[in-house]
Give the backbone structure.
Amino acid sequence: MLGNVVRVAAVAASGGGGRLGSSAAGAMLTSRTFLKRTRAGAVVKVVREHYLRDDIPCGAAACRLCGARPAGAGLEARPAGAASHLCPGPHYLLPDTNLLLHQIDILEDPVIKNVIVLQTVLQEVRNRSAPVYKRVRDMIANPEKHFYSFTNEHHRETYIEQEQGENSNDRNDRAIRVAVKWYNEHLKKMKNEENIQVIFLTNDRNNKEKALEEGITAYTCEEYIKSLMANPDLVDRLACISDEGKEIESGKIFFPEHLPLSKLQQGIKSGIYLQGTYRASRDNYLEATVWVHGDAEENKEIIIQGLKHLNRAVHEDIVAVELLAKDEWVAPSSVVLQDDSQNEDDIENEEEKENILKASVNKNMLRPTGKVVGIIKRNWRPFCGMLSKSQIKEARRHLFTPADRRIPRIRIETRQADTLEGQRIIVAIDGWPRNSRYPNGHFVKNLGNAGDKETETEVLLLEHDVPHQPFSQAVLSFLPKMPWSITEKDMKYREDLRQLCVCSVDPPGCTDIDDALHCRELENGNLEVGVHIADVSHFIRPGNALDEESAKRGTTVYLCEKRIDMVPELLSSNLCSLRSNVDRLAFSCIWEMNHKAEILKTRFTKSVINSKASLTYAEAQMRIDSAGMNDDVTTSLRGLNKLAKILKKKRIDNGALTLSSPEVRFHMDSETHDPIDLQTKELKETNSMVEEFMLLANISVAQKIYDEFSEFALLRKHPAPPPSNYDILVKAAKSKNLEIKTDSAKALAESLDKAESPAFPYLNTLLRILTTRCMMQAVYFCSGMDNDFHHYGLASPIYTHFTSPIRRYADIIVHRLLAVAIGADSTYPELTDKHKLADLCKNLNYRHKMAQYAQRASVAFHTQLFFKTKGEVNEDAYILFVRKNAIVVLIPKYGLEGTVFFEEKDKTKPRLDYNSEVPSLTVEDTTFRIFDKVKVNIMLDASNIQHQKIRMVLVEPKIPGKDVPANPTTEASVSNEPEKKKKKLQK
Amino acid sequence: MAALELLSDEGYRADGRRAAELRKVRARMGVFAQADGSAYIEQGNTKALAVVYGPHEMRGSRSKALHDRALVNCQYSMATFSTSERKRRPHGDRKSSEMTLHLKQTFEAAILTQLYPRSQIDIYVQILQADGGNYCACVNAATLAVIDAGIPMRDYVCASSAGFVEDTPLADLSYIEEASGGPQVALALLPTSEQIALLEMNSRLHEDHLEEVIEAASKACKAVHAVLDQVVRDHVQEVTALLGD
Amino acid sequence: MASVVLSEAEKLYIVHGVQEDLRVDGRGCEDYRCAEVETDVVSNTSGSARAKLGHTDILVGVKAEMGTPKLEKPDEGYLEFFVDCSANATPEFEGRGGEELGTEIANTLYRIFSSESCVDLKSLCINPREHCWVLYVDVLLLECGGNLFDAISIAVKAALFNTRIPKVRVLEDEEGSKEIELSDDPYDCIRLNVDEVPCVVTLSKIGYRHVVDATLQEEACSLASLLISVTSKGALTCMKKVGKGSLDPESIFEMMETGKRVGKSLHTSLQKILDEEESLGTTRQKVGFLG
């Protein structure tokens, strides 16, 4: 046989060989192969190229071996971090992934500097926790911190391949160790008089042992932090992630084991377990409900009762639950239980309490009941609250009681318990072992004295998840450099509208002016009306840190005396604020209208304007009204006002609703900044004039971006409420012999207009307030993901937000879309990705909701402050709702709403009779109906320092058996209150 | 799991390249003996074969013959195993018909077709492994194959793609970069005259950035040109050395 | 295939040569041309190989995909063959021109692999009746210089040898629902035993004698050939007469004997180089089409 099969041997490949563009980087090629499951479930082999390079700098400032100097600060040549007795020499730190994830609080301390963050670590962090990733990125961008990110996976000498029998975690651990070794050898070559060492920080015992075997200096975070001589208090902020073996707690097991994720997913797929969001009960720490995800009709809401069944789940966690057998089902208890035991291991006591729950079972009320078998995703955040100091003197371990009652108490270790007592502090949960009654956590931050205005504001921001940290260096780096002026380049796609007589009308004291208007007569007799909106998207470029931060914040949050900006102040109050007599960039929407306010032409353009006047509503109103004034601004205003009236009428004819809700404003004492009086806002004609044009601009823009991007337009909709929502309104009106029609928005608006009672002038307002409560929430959405665009309240088929880009992120996106639509700016991939837009909308809706809650909480807090100084008062009130055991009243004078309970702790309960048909509530012999006028006594209840509240008690009509001081002596209560308060603080 | 980071803050792409860097290009001419010209190219993990038959008489119907120039006939096909999820058919689908058309346009612009009236030149390209820039690899391979066949061209045709991520143009996109959905430009260039033989762009990209992206793509094309030129020179040297023996 | 047109004189020359056991390229009647084989040439396949036999150039890619077992064989996976006669080989294959030949070759492959013992199909089963591996064996014909079937069978065998199928675990819970889990370790994979995979030996009748591994020219002189598939142990698994001429029974037996003998040694040398290549592991520099 002549022919033989031969192996093809490698010969030097001909051809140009590898050249990487114009770069001189000698790069080596390798490939990474991995298997991936596609969405359809197929297994595919993926091969990706992986280039290894020689030109990646080590980041050390003193290094001359690495040619290219890294951008940014890099590592200091002489790292002068905190002195440590473990490593007295100069050193850099190199943490592993878990350390970064868990001990980020410590690493953020200014004392910690010169840290090398490996790409391996950074990628893992990125995949596991987006918030931590962002914090790490911020630190890397901060020149003070000297954090350096080393692209080790593409460095020829630090890249390693996964070995046989090695899982990817082990591989990454090895990659980190290889990088540490490389660094140490590399830094030795620097021939400095003092050799810089790289210290490997890991809390993983195995990894540390392996590192030590390989001759790497490695410490746990705890060892290192404790070795810092000058900063003993840092130790408090260590997360206590204890190794399984090294439990401080007693060996007693409180909780069943959590099942591993793979088991859970399997179980969920097969239906034995249900996945849902865990919501702890506010009133009862032994009870929670799980809202099952998905569209299942049955068992949507599962009750969990008892410590063992709750099984260490924390409010908002995504958990897997298993349903119990029907005979074990329970009813939601109406008992209020607070976890106040001091003895941690007092499990018998718990069981006793659990029995209390079971005793009060009503057979008809049984609900699906389950137990938590595992956690799918923890949603822990830092929690605000107060320290409950251990009764044992000198103890280091204390319990922390979060302000949110749904969060369990957390055990922390601290040496500063004495200082922290009576302070609002932040604590983060680190873990919850099976043998611990409470989760373990660590102290993060001291916010200040409980009850202080600053502290409480901070608390309410934190509790409503309002991002309010000062903007990071990375974010600020994207601001325009001052002094800023408009350049030739800026003018490329802009019209110069500086000659137009533009003015702005805003509430007094407004510094973030995002809209301005003009109106002039054209030669053809028509009117030209322009709405000019601050061109924020000119300054905030997609994808940079500034943009990401604004997108995350979503909205500016207005509190009673504080504003949490969405964008840095330079933009919000200066460059983007359309102040008078300065050139400002704007995005203009210009209509040509006839005198009947019919739009003939609509045009959008980026522009430059120079506002001639920044007016308040009152000033504008005055100009319009004073016949003597005939300057350009005033003429313009009059034109606008005239058109606005027509527009408003048209809108209302179309069925737009005008609803009212009492808006409260505080008069502040100029020195103490304490509220001295409350006032409900009054509306002027000019308010509605500005509003009318903003609505018009929003509608015009919505139409334009939808025409251009039918799939990617960010719109705002307001769904029509289901008819049943109106039941209460209709019933309430009926009780006053009025008819409210709810079959359409137009009918509703008309019937509301007619609902007047000469004897009861406030009735109409009350009806409108009640109508507001029947409405659905308006939401942002992406046009490609929804088919219902209707805005019910405004009776517009399409709507969006365009007019307030300084304070709403949605408007920025809308600006970008519009800019692309008119060719004035470029697009980017995320803008035309409807899934990304939908995610963005989700965040914006969430932030808006939270901002509203925070605002309400702020008003509530200031109301409390107000009543703290004012003492007890008696005021007229109207009943808004009737509940089973209480009435909800509105006090018009303060725009304040509150609940009057008829049952009190430790007192005999009055006879209550609730009729849901009317609805009415009869207490003893007095019957309460909606809109009844009553008189209530208002006071501050400060018995719980974490949860102060306004308490209302009925004064008129009198109910027998309930004794309330009809005429409280104001002096007495005023002097009483603060004393009580002081006592609390001193304790 | 977070989406893939296309360009890290440190300036590296997912595979470790910098924004303007090309993948490794390796090529060889004269892969097959029976065809008139053939070549093979690797651009990273994208691998393509091209063969050229002709110029020869018209095959099949003579009515298609052009009286003043040669007909350039192309076929683009992808091996069924070339993609990570198996393809059901190698050619004839919409995408490959489009590619076929693009190739035809590109090479009609480059080959001196007027020299061969009433004849036909067949260019067949085959993707063996697909990892982004399939069209570009095919054009580059076909250029070498046409040269191998000794058919005169105005210039080399060099192709490369470019994308735009985080305000930075990226040269020579890999599959994951293409799949991210950002704007991308495929450019076929006659490098010496800087004439564009084919330009294709998808997804929205602002006019202002277009220049930058095209600039990045044409820079990449020129880098490809340098490699191809070296391949041709090496090949010619090798062949003459063999002939000399 | 590049068609060869031979004159009568040329044909006579070839036929007379064969008669004397001396072929145009110097080989004897039972000699193969030098075959070049390289595996793992397409990195995103589960297994691949390129085989060159003279000018015949074949690339085979194997892709393992998850599918459902066939009803009649609930506990086995299966193989699917597809042959793409690329226009690379000859302009005649452009468009749908190569389909007929492709289908013919694919059908032959199905028949060759229909034998039970050929590949252990049970090892491809993940869980009976629900999941199994389907191996898509895709043959790409790049150039044709005679003796297509033999070259394809060599390439297929080499590619199957090279195939690595990811290991998956079937997780089953109490209620019987199943979840498939992929191993995290890329080295964790199933290899196929290819000992029993046959190779094709085509014997072409030229004049009164027969030759193996005919070139295009020789094929043009042959009226009929016998295609047999032989295992490494010399067992015959499939046989097929091709070509427009006829064969007498006597010569069929002779050809079978030759085929078995030649096939056995073909297997031996193929296995030898596959093992050799395997032993080089990942350090081997791949050549592919660059050599």
Observations:
- Confidence is low (pLDDT under 50) at residues 9-26, 243-249, 965-987 of chain A.
- The first strand of chain A starts at residue 5 and ends at 7.
- The CA atoms of residues 105 and 369 of chain A lie 38 Å apart.
- Chain A touches chain B through 52 residues (CB under 8 Å).
